[in-house]
Design brief:
Layout (H helix, E strand, L loop, with lengths): L2 H9 L11 H4 L1 E5 L2 E4 H9 L2 H4 L4 H24 L6 H25 L4 H14 L4 E10 L2 H12 L4 H8 L5 E6 L5 H8 L11 E3 L2 E12 L5 H26 L15
Helix pairs in contact: 1-5, 3-5, 6-11, 7-11
Length: 268
């Protein structure tokens, strides 16, 4: 499949329409065999895709996708020439697409009325009420392949070596681990890290399934609930799922439904 046409499908480009804006040439981005591709159609496609909007402004989108829209118009014109809209396959797929679009818009409207800021904040308050604080440690580590290599690092630390510089020289992975609770780390690592005081580094290598660690504890604190801003996307997703479940339950409550198995027997 032509890559530009595939991109057009992914973008969900809108149907060509007129536009009063003076962008392009009097609102026209291209003319393909006498048919206009308008700036409005490109802007509609851009505005309907939040993922694209977050990565590029409209001018950048316009430059990168103009050929995509042109190719899309060429393919559409070719499809009309071959009378694709009159084919049985087209009519079948169109019917399915219409049904799916109707379902999509219906559910979006039902859910949008229920996914409110008030519901999200209510769920956030429930999260804060149920939150149980745990001790958290902020640490760095230097991970090496052997006990001898870890002891070499510890020896250099005892002589005043800089942990970060030694990490760049020796460690198999980034040193920074950030804050973590005891249960998220492998037991050997967690036991060693949570037994140390702020500012200390491990005086003996800590062996785990990943290798040999030299750990430095930078801070110790009691965990706190995440801010609303941090968890809002997850909370909105939860409210959305609850709204969908409620909608399906309400639709099925008074409906008369008879289901059959593959052999035609009624499913009780």
């Amino acid at each position: 499949m032509n890559k530009r046409y595939l991109a057009l499908l992914l973008l969900g480009a809108a149907v060509i329409a007129t536009d009063a804006k003076a962008e392009g040439k009097n609102g026209v981005a291209a003319v393909v065999n006498g048919k206009e591709v308008t700036v409005a159609s490109m802007r509609d496609a851009y505005n309907s895709n939040p993922a694209i909007k977050s990565k590029a402004n409209f001018d950048e989108f316009y430059k990168k996708t103009l050929d995509v829209f042109v190719d899309g118009e060429l393919v559409y014109q070719a499809a009309l020439e071959e009378k694709i809209p009159e084919s049985a396959e087209y009519k079948t797929q169109l019917k399915l697409a219409e049904q799916e679009l109707a379902r999509k818009i219906y559910l979006e409207k039902k859910v949008a009325s229920q996914v409110t800021d008030a519901e999200v904040k209510k769920l956030y308050q429930e999260y804060k009420t149920k939150f149980q604080s745990e001790k958290e440690v902020k640490a760095k580590h230097i991970l090496v392949d052997s006990d001898a290599k870890a002891k070499e690092v510890i020896s250099k630390l005892k002589k005043g070596g800089n942990f970060d510089k030694l990490a760049k020289e020796y460690s198999k992975e980034p040193a920074e681990l950030g804050y973590f609770t005891k249960k998220v780390m492998v037991p050997e690592f967690a036991e060693a890290a949570f037994a140390m005081k702020k500012g200390e580094y491990s005086k003996t290598p800590v062996k785990t399934q990943f290798g040999y660690h030299v750990i430095k504890v930078e801070d110790i604190r009691d965990s706190k609930p995440a801010s609303l801003k941090e968890v809002e996307p997850q909370l909105k997703a939860m409210v959305t799922q609850a709204a969908l479940a409620k909608t399906f339950k309400e639709l099925g409550k008074n409906a008369k439904v008879t289901k059959y198995d593959i052999k035609g027997n009624v499913i009780e």
